[in-house]
Design a protein that fits this description.
The complex is a heterodimer. By secondary structure, chain A is an all-alpha fold. Chain A folds into three domains: about 1-70 and about 75-135; about 135-190 and about 205-555, no CATH class; about 560-630. Chain A is built from 26 helices and two strands. A two-stranded antiparallel sheet of chain A has the order 1-2. Chain B folds into two domains: about 1-270, no CATH class; about 270-485, no CATH class. By secondary structure, chain B is an all-alpha fold. Chain B has 22 helices and two strands. The relative contact order of chain B is 0.10. Classes of the chains: A mainly alpha, B mainly alpha.
Chain lengths: ~625, ~475
């Protein structure tokens, strides 16, 4: 059954190739069916492969072909089937399928429809390679592949240069991270002689060949890769800009799957990270700072997708905080629940944008509840789920991160709780401003408001159901133990990633759960009072007077800072090299050093005088004679 | 014998084209390319099955001096033979959209050059290597001078010619010095390796310096590169392709063939500077590429950056880097042909290659943009393209020499993306404008050529194994002889 795994990426690849090369005359519905059908087949196959892992089978490596082979460094195209890869498989193909279906409706009027579905298929292909690869090198194939797909999809509407700039920015910042990852791989290979997970972590533990600062440095390099892909400080600035892409892209790539690749990688490398306290601290701090940064910026954003984007940045930060504290399985847990509710929220926002005729500013919305009943109710479910209100999915995963923080590090506990409170606030702010109150857009827009077609609302409903029940795969440990409900996910992953064993009493755990719930409810209530009861609206840009507000609304001016300290200086250096160093210094030096004998100029003259033919003939003849003397 | 045929075919065809030429020049030239490709693939298969005897040829030439006709294809040179055989028909075919004055001379010179480069790759004797290495200069000199563009090309070609000749003198001196230590006197590689390794470390270091300077000019590596952008610019596209795809590989291949096994201790002890300038060159050339407005110059500088990595990697002397270097030579050759052909397509349509005056080509000609995008991805070394295999192995190898150099040199990963995506964005994306709105569809020839390049780039990226398999053993042997 494990052998089936090599089929999984084949489906979306074939889908992509088929649509690109043979899709020209086909109707949009056919293309949509091919695209989502491919993912559906991958999903079914993933379930089959997943079932092999349910009862603690050993990790299986399935080799497809030889790839890069040198005497020592020898990497195959081959896949690993183990709990970590299969659980990722499930939600990538599952959520991916829903988003493909949704896209059929969302992109229906777009002239680039075929291209869009094809790119989505290609993306899923690379995402599957990323999690299935049996070595860092194979993971890197997927890692860069999803980056390119992200580039193509952010700049999908390529006639608008703003989209192209956002796409380029995403690719280049990711490349900085990728360099980190490459260097991490270099160090691992240098010290252990392999990049295969099997040699490093499973059959043998070559990873233990890394010691001291080599270990810390290797882990930090890997984490730099994660910073790029998963938008952590200081490489986070591309993700909000990536919202320039069509909304299903934001849901699939920039919320549910690709941006969680960094968490996957760190979890996959848990043996390395758990051995390095230095790197773990770096991960933890980068994570929590990003979580706070994202959450505070999200408070002030008025673009519905930007709020969700900063929310994603912030949630990813929480996941890294968990990773930094050694709670690898809990981070993965949050990845999964987050995939459900964040995909739901993004798709919901897409439905709103669709109804609003492209408008994304929540200051021009309001009162959409009655016009978009399904979108409204599912969006509300997503909002409750992300806010951490029980028993929805987000509650379980986030609460467990906070519980670990309580045990491990009081500062993290406090900060994570603050993030959690902020999250509930900005999400309900978003909800109230969008769906409640009265409509603030134009008449034309109001007239045009409509619920989205079924092909879009059904994915919303499915995701809403998952956002409600998804949390039960990871029931809190102590309480669960008392109630005889196991933490299924921890149990499932326990042989794959390093485990953080929480030694917490039922009482402590319950109190923490109640505390977290109360915090979320208070935040929600504040948002309710402010935006519902008092009917406050988000400020227009020129109404902002407080400098804190301005700083947050301007995203801490980080983009401007990078522009000033990196981009412009590098460009200036490049220009300086071109205009001064190259012609005035290097070339001049060459002229000084080489004493060109003027006599050589006569060769050129000979050529121009038409003696060329003779010259060449003589040369060929000479060479041929030279060779023929020996035959 | 087979090896001799691989050198003889281009030279004989060159003569044939030259004599018969006027009308049939380009057809004959393409035929020669296909013949060469078929022979080389046949040779590769022979090598794979260990049938090495027909791949070596040895006979005395100038007996008293110990100079031999010694040619052999082994696991190392077969990669370069493949590069030559793949590039040659592509380069010839790329010219089919143009007509040239005196086509028989033009195509005759191309094949003369290919033959002499093949001779250098297959040489089994240092003197033969040097001879062919130098001879290759002459045809390209005339190709640029006669069919190039720009009024300053006599000056440009002279600079190119003198510069590289000048560099070669150092190599000649080094080779003669080592030759003097062989006994009995011979230029055969094996004997030269032994003689080289028996030199004192300091002597080895000096010999290394001499040879490296020659190669540094040819590749070129910073700061010896200034002849290159102006020469590339002046050369006709086919000439640029010959230079970038094949000719410079004589130098990078020379590092593996001559430097590593001959003066390993000198390299290890005194060769640090060469790695450092190679790595500086990566970053410096990348920055220059970023600052260019003309597409052809951008490609020229990007080539300097890539070659810097090949040079630094190979000098780090380990199996990963040598394999990476060999593969990158192949990949770089194919990509260079693709990139310069993209330049050619644009230049023939717009009459210029100013990137800031373009934009919107994708909207008018999506097929072209798509094919160019894959070439861009290959040249930024995306996995599953040929560019990745080489670059990744080179970095992996270089990191065993110095992590710092790897961090610095690895900036190519980032900067490469910056300038290549910038070029893609400036030329292809955005709305079409008055310059580009009339950008006509690709001709059949253009489509076929770009498709072949793209298929090779992706194909070699996914299936590098058959190629690497050819050279694995040879690389091991090479390293075993050093240690």
């Amino acid at each position: 059954m494990e052998k089936l795994v090599s089929l999984i990426p084949v489906f979306p690849l074939v889908g992509f190739l088929y649509i690109i090369f043979l899709g020209k005359g086909l109707s949009k519905n056919t293309i949509g069916a091919i695209g989502s059908g491919a993912i559906f087949l991958a999903f079914i196959t993933s379930i089959l492969v997943f079932t092999t892992q349910l009862h603690g089978a050993n990790p299986t490596i399935v080799k497809v072909i030889d790839w890069i082979t040198t005497p020592k460094f020898d990497i195959d195209i081959s896949f690993i089937v183990d709990p970590l890869s299969t659980i990722y498989l499930l939600f990538i193909t599952g959520v991916g399928f829903l988003i493909h279906v949704y896209s059929i409706g969302y992109m229906h009027e777009d002239e680039g429809f075929n291209r869009f579905i094809a790119y989505l298929n290609l993306f899923v292909f690379f995402m599957l390679i990323l999690v299935l690869g049996d070595s860092y090198a194979m993971m890197f194939v997927g890692w860069e592949g999803v980056g390119v797909c992200s580039f193509m999809l952010i700049g999908f509407w390529y006639k608008d240069m703003a989209n192209n700039d956002a796409a380029k920015k995403a690719f280049i910042i990711n490349r900085i991270g990728d360099l980190g990852l490459i260097l991490g791989m270099c160090m691992i290979f240098f010290h252990t002689g392999t990049l295969r997970y099997d040699d490093l972590f499973i059959s043998e533990s070559a990873a233990s060949g890394l010691h001291g600062w080599d270990l810390h440095l290797a882990a930090i390099f890997l984490f730099i890769g994660a910073m790029g892909k998963s938008a952590q400080i200081p490489l986070h600035t591309w993700l909000p800009d990536a919202m320039a892409g069509p909304t299903p892209v934001s849901a699939l790539i920039h919320a549910a799957t690709m941006v969680t690749a960094g968490i996957y990688m760190v979890a996959r490398s848990s043996a390395i990270f758990s051995a390095s306290d230095v790197a773990s601290d770096v991960v933890m701090w980068a994570g929590i700072l990003t979580a706070i940064l994202g959450a505070t910026i999200a408070l002030t954003q008025n673009d519905i997708k930007k709020v969700l984007a900063y929310s994603t940045v912030s949630q990813l930060g929480l996941m890294f905080t968990a990773l930094g504290m050694g709670a690898y399985s809990i981070a993965v847990f949050h990845v999964i629940t987050h995939a459900f509710f964040k995909a739901l929220l993004f798709l919901g926002s897409g439905s709103v944008i669709h109804a609003m005729g492209g408008e994304q500013d929540i200051r021009r919305m309001g009162g959409l509840k009655s016009h978009l009943p399904i979108t409204h109710i599912t969006f509300l479910i997503g909002t409750i789920a992300i806010s951490g209100i029980p028993p929805l999915a987000g509650f379980f995963s986030k609460d467990q991160i906070i519980a670990v923080a309580f045990e491990e590090n009081m500062i993290m506990f406090v900060l994570a709780s603050v993030v959690s409170a902020l999250t509930a606030f900005y999400m309900f702010r978003l909800y109230f401003l969008t769906f409640r109150g009265s409509f603030r857009g134009t008449h034309e827009q109001e007239h045009h408001l409509h619920e989205s077609p079924k092909v879009m609302t059904i994915p919303l409903i499915v995701l809403a159901v998952l956002s409600i029940f998804g949390g039960f795969m990871g029931f809190p440990h102590a309480v669960g133990h008392a109630m005889h409900v196991p933490h299924w996910l921890d149990h499932f992953l326990e042989n794959t990633v390093e485990m953080e064993v929480l030694d917490m009493s039922v009482g402590t755990e319950s109190i923490l759960m109640i505390l977290a719930t109360v915090i979320a409810l208070i935040s929600m209530y504040i948002a309710y009072t402010k935006y519902m009861k008092n009917g406050e609206l988000a400020l227009e840009d020129d109404e902002i007077t407080s400098s804190t507000h301005q700083t947050l609304a301007s995203k801490y001016y980080i983009d401007e800072l990078y522009e000033k300290i990196i981009r412009r200086p590098v460009d200036a250096i490049a220009q300086f090299a071109r205009n001064v160093v190259e012609p005035k210094i290097i070339d001049e030096l060459v002229k000084q050093v080489s004493l060109i004998p003027s006599g050589l100029g006569s060769v050129a003259k000979a050529a121009q005088n038409g003696k060329l033919v003779m010259y060449v003939l003589a040369m060929i003849a000479g060479l041929i004679i030279l060779l023929s003397t020996l035959i | 014998m087979l090896t001799i045929a691989l050198i003889a075919v281009p030279l004989l065809m060159s003569g044939l084209i030259f004599v018969l030429g006027q009308k049939l020049a380009r057809q004959l030239a393409l035929l020669a390319g296909i013949l060469q490709l078929a022979l080389t693939v046949f040779a590769a298969i022979q090598l794979k099955y260990g049938n090495t005897s027909i791949l070596t040829f040895q006979q005395n030439w100038i007996g008293p001096l110990g100079i031999q006709y010694h040619f052999s294809l082994d696991g190392l040179s077969i990669i370069l033979a493949l590069l030559t055989a793949i590039s040659a028909p592509l380069i010839v075919y790329s010219t089919f959209n143009r007509t040239f004055k005196s086509p028989h001379v033009f195509y005759g010179l191309i094949w003369l050059m290919i033959g002499s480069m093949m001779g250098a790759f297959a040489a089994g004797d240092a003197f033969i290597f040097y001879l062919f290495y130098e001879i290759a200069l002459i045809p390209i000199y005339f190709l640029i001078l006669i069919w190039g563009s720009g009024d300053d090309r006599p000056k440009v070609t002279m600079k190119f010619f003198v510069y590289t000749m000048f560099g070669s003198l150092f190599m000649l001196a080094s080779l003669l010095y080592v030759y003097a230590h062989t006994s009995p006197k011979t230029f055969g590689f094996e004997a030269m390796y032994q003689a080289g390794q028996s030199l004192s470390v300091l002597e080895q270091g000096l010999v290394f310096a001499g040879i490296f300077i020659a190669f540094a000019v040819k590749m070129p590596v910073f700061p010896f590169h200034t002849w290159q952008p102006s020469t590339y610019k002046a050369a006709p596209t086919a000439g640029t392709m010959l230079l970038a795809a094949i000719m410079l590989k004589m130098a990078t291949f020379g590092l593996i063939r001559l430097v590593l096994p001959m003066v390993p201790d000198g390299l290890a002890e005194y060769g640090n500077w060469a790695l450092v300038i190679s790595v500086i060159g990566i970053v410096y050339a990348s920055l220059l590429a970023m600052a260019q407005k003309q597409f052809k110059l951008l490609i020229a500088y990007s080539s300097v950056a890539h070659v810097g990595l090949i040079s630094a990697g190979i000098l780090s002397t380990n199996a990963e880097a040598i394999q990476g270097g060999l593969f990158e030579m192949l990949s770089h050759g194919i990509l260079a042909i693709g990139l310069f052909f993209v330049y050619d397509i644009i230049e023939t349509r717009l009459g210029h290659d100013q990137m800031d005056k373009m934009g919107g080509i994708r909207a008018v000609n999506p097929t072209f943009a798509f094919l160019y995008f894959i070439i861009v991805m290959g040249s930024v070394a995306l996995p599953f393209t040929s560019g990745f295999v080489g670059e990744f192995l080179l970095l992996l190898g270089l990191s065993q020499y110095s992590l710092w150099l790897t961090i610095f040199g690895g900036l190519t990963v980032v900067l490469g993306a910056v300038y290549m995506l910038r070029s893609f964005q400036m030329m292809m994306l955005g709305p079409e404008n008055t310059n580009t709105s009339g950008f006509t569809a690709l001709t059949r020839q253009e489509k076929i050529l770009l498709s072949i390049v793209v298929i090779l780039v992706v194909g070699l990226g996914i299936f590098p194994h058959p190629i690497m398999d050819l050279s694995n053993k040879a690389v091991e042997t090479l390293l075993a002889n050093i240690r």
